[in-house]
Structures are given as structure tokens and as C-alpha cells.
Amino acid sequence: MKIEKGLVLPVNGLEITVDRILGNGPGVVFFGGYSSVRFGEKASALWEWAMENGRSFIRFDYSGHGGSIEEFTKGTLGQWRDEALAVVEELTREPQILVGSSMGGWISLLVAGRLPEKTRAVVTVACAADFTVNVVEKKLGKEGLEVLSSEGILDLGGGTIMTKRFIDESREHLLLGAPIEINCPAHLIHGLSDERIPWETSLKAAELIASGSVAVELVKSGDHRLSTGADISRLIARIEEFSV
């Protein structure tokens, strides 16, 4: 087993930071959520699991994540998707289990659709596919959208910043209006008490995924983060099921 931390991977003129464990397969690649960093609870828990079990694992920061607000606000879903694609294409060999949390769930579906030969299975946690238009725009309402349109940026509170550029560009990557051409197994976990992304999002995604092996797991008391000990154990169990 080999551990590599702080790898720098250039993508589209930007640089992202990657940590990876070179161990046994199938490998796991973790895609974080909007404004999350690679040292978050789920990413860290999976890193420890991989270390203990000698498994190959990759976590990384999208460009702008962990840096300044100015850097973060330059990001788009398309750029972050390209970074995720580069990680899988350039840093892995065998088909991977793609694990996506929140926005990372959206990105994991996009990557699986583009790289079927490198995708063994997809596991999402609180999948936030199309959240920019189905959740953010609805919550902002007319007044909030007017402020966003005129200012180009809006503080949603709780340290969450949203830009008009990000929302507008994300429309090029919407998934929930047509069949999702993914044919590998997929397991979507969502909390019924998710305060940010409706659990129906995962149901809709599951309905549209072309694969005949798709499951949705609803956690009755689960919130958006799904980061309790029981939540992490559940996630690891699903990953291990796809490892056989």
C-alpha cells in the first residue's frame, strides 16, 4: 500500500489537490459537495476505512475549494465535473466505485455517464442533481433572483455563497429531464429529514437511470449530511457490497 498526499493535478489551466491510497481494488473515488473540502467527515471516514483495509481510495478538492472566496466564485459545475473526470481518467486504472455526496452525487452521475468503462458502480449520498434550478432558484424566489441577477453573487447564509454564473452554467449539465445513460449498478442514499435537498431527488434520479440495478435507500431520521457513525457504517457497507 502506498500513500500519496497533496498531489497537484492540472485541469483546464487550474490546479486541484488530490490525496490517494494505492492499495487493493476495486478503488473508490469520493466526490465532495458544494464548498466541501477533502478533509470533510465522510471523506475522512472513508480514508480511514481504506487505510485499515488496504483499499485504493482517492479524495480531492475541486478548484476554489479551501481557498479564497474570490477563487471559489470563479467555479462552475462544468469545471468541477471536468476535474472529477480528470481524476478518474488520469489517476485510476481499473473500474472504480464512484461515491458522491450532495453536489458530488450529481457530478458522480455525470462522470459515470462519460466514463462507463472506468465505473464499476455509483453510490450517492443526498444526491443533489439539478439542485441549482430545482432547489436554489425556488428558494430564492423572485426577489432573491433579482438580487442575484443584478449583483452576480448572493450570500445564502451559513457560509454558502451562490453565483449567477454557477447557476447559469449548471443548466448545461441538468440530468433530471431525460433518461440518464448509466448502465452500472447504482445505490442512492437519502435522508427523509434532509433540510436542503428533497429526498424525491434521489427517487427521480433512480427512475431515470438506465441501469436495471438501481436502489434507493431512505433513512427515516437522516439529515442532509448523513455523517453520523451509523450513516458512515451504512455507506461503507454499500461500498463493500459493490466490491465483491
* Secondary-structure arrangement, i.e. CATH architecture: 3-Layer(aba) Sandwich
In the sheet with the most strands, the strands line up as 1-2-4-3-5-6-9-10
Number of helices: 8
CATH topology: Rossmann fold
Helix and strand layout, with pairings?
Blueprint: E1 2-11, E2 14-22, E3 24-31, H1 41-53, E4 55-61, H2 69-72, H3 77-91, E5 96-101, H4 103-114, E6 119-125, H5 131-151, E7 153-157, E8 160-163, H6 164-170, E9 186-191, H7 200-208, E10 214-219, H8 229-241
Parallel strand pairs: 3-4, 3-5, 5-6, 6-9, 9-10
Antiparallel strand pairs: 1-2, 2-4, 7-8
Explained architecture:
α3 packs across α4 (103-114) and α5 packs antiparallel against α6 (164-170). The model has no long low-confidence stretch (mean pLDDT 95). The longest helix has 21 residues, at 131-151. The protein has 8 helices and 10 strands. Strands 1-2-4-3-5-6-9-10 form an 8-stranded mixed β-sheet, sandwiched between helices. It has a two-stranded antiparallel sheet with strand order 7-8. It has one domain (2-130, 176-241): Rossmann fold (3-Layer(aba) Sandwich). The radius of gyration is 17 Å and the shape is globular. α1 (41-53) links the parallel β3 (24-31) and β4 (55-61). With 244 residues, the protein is an alpha/beta fold.
Provide the descriptors you would attach to this structure in a database record.
244 residues; alpha/beta; Rossmann fold; eight-stranded mixed beta sheet; two-stranded antiparallel ribbon; 8 helices; 39% helix
What is the structure about, briefly put?
The protein has 244 residues and is an alpha/beta fold. It has helices at 41-53, 69-72, 77-91, 103-114, 131-151, 164-170, 200-208, 229-241; strands at residues 2-11, 14-22, 24-31, 55-61, 96-101, 119-125, 153-157, 160-163, 186-191, 214-219. The model has no long low-confidence stretch (mean pLDDT 95).
